[in-house]
Amino acid sequence: MRNPTAFLAEEYQALVKSELDWKLRILQGPSTPRCIVDGKKVLMLCSNNYLGLSDHPKVKEAAMQAIKTHGAGSGSVRPIAGTMDIHIELEKRLAKFKHAEASLVYQTGFAANAGLIPQLVGKEDLIISDELNHGSIIDGVRLAHGERAIYKHTDVEDLKRVLNEAEKHSPAYRRILIITDGVFSMDGDIAPLDGIAELAEKHGAMVYVDDAHGEGVLGDGGRGIVSHFKLDREKVHVEMGTFSKAFGVVGGHISGSRDLVDFAYNRSRTWLLSGSHPPPVAAACIAAIDVLEKEPQHVKKLWENTRYFKKTMKDLGFDVGNSQTPITPVMVGQSGVAKKLSSRLFEEGVFALPIVFPMVARDKARIRTMMNAALTKEDLDFAVSMFKKIGKELHII
Ligand SMILES: Cc1ncc(COP(=O)(O)O)c(C=O)c1O
Prior knowledge:
Elements: H1 6-17, E1 34-37, E2 40-44, H2 57-70, H3 85-97, E3 102-106, H4 109-120, E4 126-130, H5 135-143, E5 147-151, H6 156-167, E6 176-181, H7 193-203, E7 206-210, H8 225-228, E8 238-242, E9 252-256, H9 258-267, H10 269-272, H11 279-294, H12 297-316, E10 327-333, H13 335-347, E11 350-351, E12 354-355, E13 365-370, H14 377-393
Parallel strand pairs: 2-11, 4-5, 4-6, 6-7, 7-8
Antiparallel strand pairs: 1-2, 3-9, 8-9, 10-13, 12-13
């Protein structure tokens, strides 16, 4: 007889045995630098809340007010009865912030990638993707009917090769979509979007950048990677992002032309068939944009902290990889060492997660630390002193 559910426990146990299961840590309170995790006071070094906005008074107040004026939920999907005035206001504010013609907000960044990418290409088309793109891009590409090609990580020359190869295809591809992360989340390096956009223009290809880790971080006032490279807006056709990282809330979004947005909301199944943001979420996102526009000190502090932490760690002899952003990997090599380092750090009051195979190559295990504008110099000195103590203990430095 077939056992319909035996695989659930079997596969889970196999993950536990190979130590590939997620052991969830529980945050008891807001995501702030000094927080309580699993009942222990620790210093948070692994949150994506880069600017500390998830606990910003103006962001919290906006969420509370919106519950009073609009209720706790939106009542529907956007195309039926779930588009409220605050959703429209959020999209207008975001487009203005990004200097784009229009923006569209999705439930999450994952929903934006999974909902839009498959609609941009069909059977007669080609998608060209960086080999280290985020899983949500990979899944969006998997849902698409077009052909697929990969170029070497951030390698514009290799992209050129793939594009030249694509031009030989017969019949000629109807459309070509080049897609890349803006900032790569495991290594913190930045995509060469200027070179990509230049090549795309020559081949009449669309450019789609996922700037989840670039907005609030890169560019003028945290406007993201398009601003960082001072690119002509029209050369980057889809600028995708998320409110779940530097903006401190939740929600995916795209910015670009009015044509893009009109097309996207009529075609993205994740947008059409899934409930819209509750009012407090939409209002908190508007307030987060407001804070970014009016309080430039947060982005400035994030970079000060980033420079200080990277330099101090390097001076101690740690390998902090090739990151160009606040994502600061502390490379240790073997998975077992990364796990041990993380658990010893936690015992000593520092919360920083290990990133191990299969998320990265077997010999590229690391602790991925994320800098945050709300960390003080004392916080950073404490973190560094603990890395130094345990790094020596484990013979990493
Ligand atoms: C590069 C990248 N794209 C997309 C996402 C998904 O964003 P969201 O959390 O809004 O679903 C993430 C989040 O992990 C990410 O790092």
